[in-house]
Write a structure and sequence with these properties.
Structural class: mainly alpha
Number of helices: 9
Distance between the termini: 69 Å
Oligomer: single chain
Helix content: over 70%
Largest sheet: none
């Protein structure tokens, strides 16, 4: 007799079991630990069940990384909501961003810094990144700052992108350019955030 078809809720639950098993393996051994057989064993399912939800191991890795992205964006939104003054809010968002990157470097690298992937490497590019909550929280802080006269008026998207790019550089440059006498990571990050905020106050 044919097995009853799973409901959407049952499929979602089964998929979560697989992803959570993969997350546990990832926490212990990184991406190299995410082999299909190991994931199936940890989830208590067969390999064929894995393939009914994920075509490749990369799709499982992507599911884990998107969960991490959602976690980062939830943090950015939360810190933004906690601050009413736009300049303080923007600083809090950028601080949360660099702190997350420092504490989750490998995930951050794959998500945001793999700009020239080698064949077979995972590339994480989400749909409409300008509409994702983390970027929106940054841009909204800039818009509010311009409306209140805290920041000089200008293009808020350009200013928000410059803020992200500057902090991105503070995180990535010391990792990517070896042999340079970089300042301590946190000190450099804070200096860059200071320059961003002060620049918005004077040049928009």
């Amino acid at each position: 007799m044919a097995r009853p078809k799973l409901t959407d809720e049952e499929r979602h639950r089964a998929r979560r079991v697989i992803v959570e098993a993969a997350q546990a393996l990832y926490a212990k051994g990184g991406i190299d630990a995410l082999k299909t057989g190991a994931i199936a064993e940890a989830a208590g399912v067969g390999r064929t069940t894995i393939y009914s939800y994920f075509a490749t191991a990369d799709e499982i890795v992507a599911a884990i990384l998107w969960d991490i992205t959602d976690e980062l964006e939830a943090i950015l939104v939360q810190v933004a909501k906690a601050e009413s003054e736009p300049d303080v809010r923007l600083r809090a968002v950028l601080n949360a961003y660099v702190t997350f990157a420092r504490e989750n470097w490998e995930e951050f690298r794959i998500l945001f810094m793999n700009t020239d992937p080698k064949p077979g490497e995972l590339v994480m590019i989400g749909p409409e990144p300008q509409k994702r909550p983390g970027y929106v929280a940054t841009r909204d802080a800039v818009i509010d700052g311009m409306k209140k006269g805290i920041f000089v008026e200008g293009d808020p998207d350009l200013a928000a992108q410059a803020a992200w790019a500057a902090t991105w550089g503070a995180i990535g440059a010391p990792k990517g350019i070896a042999g340079f006498a970089w300042y301590d990571g946190e000190e450099l990050e804070q200096q860059v955030i200071d320059v961003v905020i002060d620049g918005l106050r004077t040049i928009g």
